[in-house]
Amino acid sequence: MDQNFLKYFRIIVFAFLSITLANCSGSDNDNSEPGGGETVNEFKAQRFTIVTLSTKTNVSADATYNWTSATVSSQNYSLTNTTSKEALFAAAAEGTYQFKVVITDKGTTQEQQVTVIVSAETKELKNYIAKVFEFKPAPGQFINDLPAANDGDTAERILTRANSYLAKKSGDLISLGAFGGYVVFGFDHSIVNVKGIRDFRVLGNAFWAGANPNPDAELRGGSSEAGVIMVAYDKNKNGLPDDEWYEIEGGGHKMEKTIRNYEITYHRPDPNKIPVPGGGTGTVLFTDMEYIYWTDNQGKSGYMAQNNAYNHSLDYWPKWLKDQETITFKGTRLPDNAVDESGTGSYFVQYAFLYGYADNAPNNDDDSGIDIDWAIDSNGNKVQLPAIDFVKVYNGLNQQAGWLGETSTEIMGATDLHLSGENIPTR
């Protein structure tokens, strides 16, 4: 036989055997441990990102799943959807996180291991608001001042101005006006829902009363103008707050006089209307007791009074909506919290709700911190979120506090408590 033919034949056979042995020694995705042990699935992620975890197995649609932690290098993580095929994971700390998944299908049970290796982010994250998506305040004393609004301004221009106030390290106050007025903003990272501790804080201008005339007051109070907080995570990954919203259930939500699904409509005041003055307190005068008419879905109606306090604009209607006849807002209305402790109308105290709101407790108070685990769905059911990307804050109070005027939530920013290293136990 030709020697060259034998030489080439041996080379071809050797190559074939090498390829065959290689294919038999490992899977396409390296998910099987040597020796036929449990399947290992490995994921890599950066801090403050939501990762979808899954296993590689051929089971029926009726299979059940149970995800549990095995070995984790830090407790600063979140694992949700633990009875689904795909779990959601996020971590605020670098390290290796190992989970076990028990899969039961048609009486057969198998166990797989999922490992997530979390590394530091490749760029420095901002511990403040990255972008304001919506700003729609209700009528109020400060809505044309915080931020400043001018005749001829458009809604787009006001939104740009709201971004210039909030989307920076040291923010400036914006006012949400009366009940329902709101702002929607987001971050440049996901805020992780870490079990047992609070996750973020919305900054406001709340403060405790320094000279409450009532020495027997049981609650803390001062200027507490609670804004209800809603949260969402970027489920569809398009970078926009168009996903399902969940409301943070604070202490006030559980009070008897709280009204869910409250709706109010404000009517633009006639500029030619004759004012109805109503006296005043000290140097503050009520220039029109019947300034802005409102109606609600509880069969009630009333007026937002106009005063000359604080050197604010006397125009309470948003200047960029000068041609809009009405504005309607919906949400959870919290019980009135303003009490005239002086008995003469000179000293009002707005008592804080226990926890769970914006502009309800001072920014350095633990109870200004928010736990994402307080989130509920539209039916009032508790939900488990891996992290959040977006926040909506709206004024939850519809009340007048004497010469102080209507209660209006103000905010000036928001921070990620994990990124700032604050460890505040939850309630």
Main sheet: which strands, in order across?
A: 8-10-25-14-15-24
Helix content: under 10%
Distance between the termini: 87 Å
The proportion of strand residues reads 35-45%
Assembly state here?
Answer: single chain
Summarize this structure as a short list of keywords or feature phrases.
single chain; 427 residues; mainly beta; 6-stranded antiparallel beta sheet; 5-stranded antiparallel beta sheet; 2 helices; 26 strands; 8% helix; elongated; disordered N terminus
List strands and helices in order, with pairings.
Layout lengths: L2 H22 L14 E8 L4 E3 L10 E9 L4 E4 L6 E5 L3 E11 L2 E12 L11 E6 L18 H12 L7 E2 L6 E11 L7 E5 L2 E2 L12 E3 L3 E6 L13 E3 L10 E9 L12 E2 L2 E13 L4 E7 L18 E8 L4 E3 L7 E4 L17 E2 L4 E2 L10 E9 L14 E7 L11
